[in-house]
Write a structure and sequence with these properties.
The protein has helices at about 5-45, 140-155, 215-220, 240-245, 255-270, 280-295, 305-320, 340-355; strands spanning about 1-5, 60-65, 70-75, 80, 110, 120, 130-135, 135, 165, 170-175, 180-195, 225, 235, 360. With about 350 residues, the protein is an alpha+beta fold. The strands form four sheets. Strands 2, 3, 5, 9, 10, 11, 12 and 13 form an eight-stranded mixed beta sheet that branches. The protein has a two-stranded antiparallel sheet with strand order 1-14. A two-stranded antiparallel ribbon has the order 4-6. Helix 1 (about 5-45) packs across helix 2 (about 140-155) and helix 6 packs across helix 7.
C-alpha cells in the first residue's frame, strides 16, 4: 500500500494514465474504422442515416465511457432548420400506431418530443410510417429501422467474425473484437442541432464565474443533439459543449485535467472496474464540471492532492445519495436508473479511500 499523498503514487498513476491513453487510442482507431465501414453501408441503404466520419485526430462521434464501453452517435440526415415550437400537449398512441384512451406521459428532464414540423426542411422519408406516428418522429421506431440496417451491414461488409449484435437490449448494441480485447458499442441515431440551444438547458447559472461569459457564448454556439435512446422521447445531449469545456479546462495553469484523469484511473482500476460500469467517464466529467463551477479560481486547483480529494468527496456524495445532476439540465438525475446495489458498493469503496487515502495498485 502506498500513501495517496506520496509523489511515487502520483507518478505511478500518471504512468498508468499514459498507458491507458495509448490503449484507448488504439481501440478508438480500430473501432472507428469498423464503424465508418458499417455506417457508410447503412447510408447507402437508407438516406436518412449518415456515415460516421473517419478522423485522424479527434472523433466527436465516439465517446469512451470506459476502456471497453463506447458510445457512438450516428448522425441522421434530412432534418434541417430546427425550431422550438409549442408542442401538442397529449399523445394517445402506441408504438404500433393504435389509439389508447389515456395519454402518454410527458417528457422529463433530458427528454423531449420531436415533431417533423419542427424542421423547416425534411426529407419525405421522415414522414413515412416506419418512423413517424401522427407527426412525431418516434425514437423506438427509428431504432427498429436502424437495428435492421446494422444487422444487414454487418453481413454485407463481411464483418460477422468481428462484430456481433448484442441481444436483450432496447438500444442498438454491438460487440466488437479489437486487437487487445472485446469492446461493447452503443450505436445511437442522433439529430444534430448546431443552430440552437435547448430551452431546457439552464445554463449558464446566475452569478457563476466559470466558465467566462466569452467561453459560454462560444460553447452555446455548438448547439445540442437529440438521441434515440428510449421509446417515445428523444434524449438531449450536449457532447460538443462538454468537449469544449474539457479542452479549455486549464488555460490558467491549474491541475483540473490531471485530477480528472487520476480520478478516472482510480475509478477504472479500483472503485468501479468492469465492462459496463455503473459509473462511467461521463459521470466523472459531470462531477468535474460542477466542482469547477463551485471552485472557479486557480488557487483551488494548484495543489494536486487537495484538488483531487475535493473531487472524490463530491463523487462520493453523489454516489451515496444516488443523485447526480446533469450539468446543463440540472432537473435530470444521471443516476436515476442506475443499479442501487452497485452504487452502494462504489460508495463504500470511495468512503474507504477518503478515510484512508492510500491505494493498492493492480
Amino acid at each position: 500500500m502506498k500513501s495517496f499523498s506520496g509523489g511515487d503514487l502520483e507518478d505511478c498513476l500518471l504512468n498508468k494514465v499514459d498507458l491507458r491513453r495509448q490503449q484507448v487510442s488504439q481501440a478508438v482507431e480500430e473501432v472507428q474504422r469498423v464503424i465508418h465501414r458499417l455506417t457508410t453501408e447503412i447510408s447507402h441503404q437508407d438516406i436518412r442515416f449518415q456515415a460516421v466520419p473517419y478522423s485522424d485526430i479527434y472523433n466527436g462521434n465516439i465517446k469512451v465511457l470506459a476502456p471497453s464501453q463506447f458510445l457512438v452517435t450516428v448522425p441522421v440526415k434530412g432534418l434541417a432548420g430546427y425550431r422550438d415550437t409549442r408542442e401538442r400537449r397529449w399523445r394517445y398512441y402506441t408504438l404500433q400506431g393504435t389509439r389508447i384512451p389515456c395519454p402518454l406521459r410527458n417528457p422529463e428532464g433530458l427528454q423531449q418530443w420531436l415533431e417533423v414540423e419542427q424542421f423547416m426542411k425534411s426529407l419525405w422519408q421522415w414522414h413515412e410510417a416506419d418512423v413517424n406516428i401522427e407527426g412525431d418522429i418516434v425514437p423506438a421506431k427509428v431504432l427498429l429501422v436502424f437495428r435492421k440496417l446494422v444487422e444487414n451491414a454487418i453481413r454485407t461488409c463481411h464483418l460477422s467474425g468481428k462484430v456481433s449484435m448484442l441481444a436483450n437490449c432496447e438500444a442498438v448494441w454491438v460487440a466488437m473484437e479489437t486487437s487487445t480485447c472485446q469492446v461493447e458499442i452503443e450505436l445511437v441515431p442522433t439529430v444534430e442541432i448546431p443552430t440552437a440551444w435547448s430551452e431546457k438547458a439552464q445554463w449558464p447559472r446566475c452569478l457563476k464565474r466559470w466558465p467566462s461569459p466569452e467561453k459560454v457564448e462560444c460553447i452555446k454556439s455548438f448547439g445540442f443533439n437529440l438521441s434515440a435512446r428510449s421509446n417515445y422521447h428523444w434524449q438531449l445531449s450536449f457532447s460538443q459543449a462538454e468537449q469544449m469545456l474539457l479542452e479549455q479546462l486549464d488555460e490558467d495553469g491549474g491541475c483540473r485535467r490531471q485530477c480528472f484523469q487520476i480520478m478516472r484511473q482510480l475509478k477504472e482500476d479500483v472503485w468501479c472496474p468492469g465492462k459496463r460500469p455503473v459509473i462511467t467517464s461521463h459521470h466523472l466529467q459531470t462531477v468535474l464540471f460542477w466542482t469547477c463551477e463551485k471552485y472557479p479560481h486557480l488557487k483551488d486547483w494548484q495543489v494536486f492532492s487537495k484538488a483531487l480529494l475535493r473531487l472524490v468527496r463530491k463523487l462520493h456524495k453523489c454516489v451515496s445519495q444516488h443523485f447526480l445532476k446533469h450539468y446543463f439540465v440540472p432537473k435530470s438525475n444521471l443516476l436515476q436508473y442506475a443499479n442501487s446495489s452497485e452504487l452502494d458498493s462504489v460508495a463504500q469503496k470511495l468512503a474507504f479511500f477518503l478515510k484512508n487515502p492510500q491505494i493498492s495498485l493492480p
